[in-house]
Amino acid sequence: MWKRATATLKSSLSLHITNEGSKYNAFHCHRFISGSPLHFQEMNGICPKHVDSVITFVLGPGSGKGTQCARIVETFGFKHLSAGDLLRKEVVSATEYGTMILDTIREGKIVPSAVTVKLILREMESSDNHKFLIDGFPRSEENRIAFERITGSEPDFVLFFDCPEEEMVKRVLSRNQGRIDDNIDTIKKRLKVFEALNLPVVDHYERRGKLHRINAVGTEDEIFEQVRPVFAACEQTAA
Ligand SMILES: Nc1ncnc2c1ncn2[C@@H]1O[C@H](COP(=O)(O)OP(=O)(O)OP(=O)(O)O)[C@@H](O)[C@H]1O
Ligand SMILES: O=c1ccn([C@@H]2O[C@H](COP(=O)(O)O)[C@@H](O)[C@H]2O)c(=O)[nH]1
Ligand SMILES: [Mg+2]
Fold this sequence. Notes:
Layout: E1 30-33, E2 36-39, E3 54-59, H1 65-76, E4 79-82, H2 83-92, H3 98-106, H4 113-125, E5 131-135, H5 141-151, E6 157-162, H6 165-173, H7 184-207, E7 211-215, H8 220-238
Parallel strand pairs: 3-5, 3-6, 4-5, 6-7
Antiparallel strand pairs: 1-2
Helix pairs in contact: 1-8, 2-3, 4-5
The protein binds adenosine-5'-triphosphate, ligand LLZGTKA7 and magnesium ion.
Residues 60-67, 84, 136, 171-172, 175, 218-220, 223 line the site of adenosine-5'-triphosphate.
């Protein structure tokens, strides 16, 4: 049994997520209780479903982390939530945020926390699983702070797939999934954003003693053999 010490989805009544220059400043995270959507800001609250949940962040753009997440799901029964996939789904569904998200992804920039956190929490709340792999998020300190304030909790641990730039570029350019950001211009921008905004998140969790750095070079099997003990140890601790 996995156990989580502090996970309650606690809202902050005074929460205001700021993304300078964005019209998505106000946080509109809906929780669905008895079918009726509520604003997180209006809730004084705890989501009982997420007490005892296990939250793992998985970081490292173009490193093969999505591929490893599939193995973790298979072996350890986690629910995989790729923030990038959730955002791309919004684009395909042409929701109110669709165009803004598409433009942001094309530029390799970061979608405002208000939008991404909303999508992640919606998936968590509709899942019966209580073990979550949140892939590709948080992308910035602002993302991280927003998530932690809204949920009232930190991740249990964080995996960082450490991949040399050259290998990342090679992998992404040969991915062939028709992603709008899998081209050399956007990749260069994503790498800059990663260094400027995502690495501080990695450093933060390293200081908190929560970071597991995985060498992302090698075969999928070799990499999974570094990942497996992290989850096996946590499973044992919780037993
Ligand atoms: N160990 C590996 N060696 C070589 N190629 C790999 C390895 N793992 C994954 N790949 C390939 O690299 C590409 C990127 O992998 P994946 O989509 O899992 O990365 P990602 O970290 O999720 O990327 P992104 O951050 O862009 O979503 C895919 O084509 C995948 O098949
Ligand atoms: O939390 C997030 C996650 C992703 N994005 C945007 O999506 C692309 C693609 O993300 P992947 O994790 O590589 O699938 C990323 O470059 C960002 O533009 C985001 O804004 N916030
Ligand atoms: Mg991915």
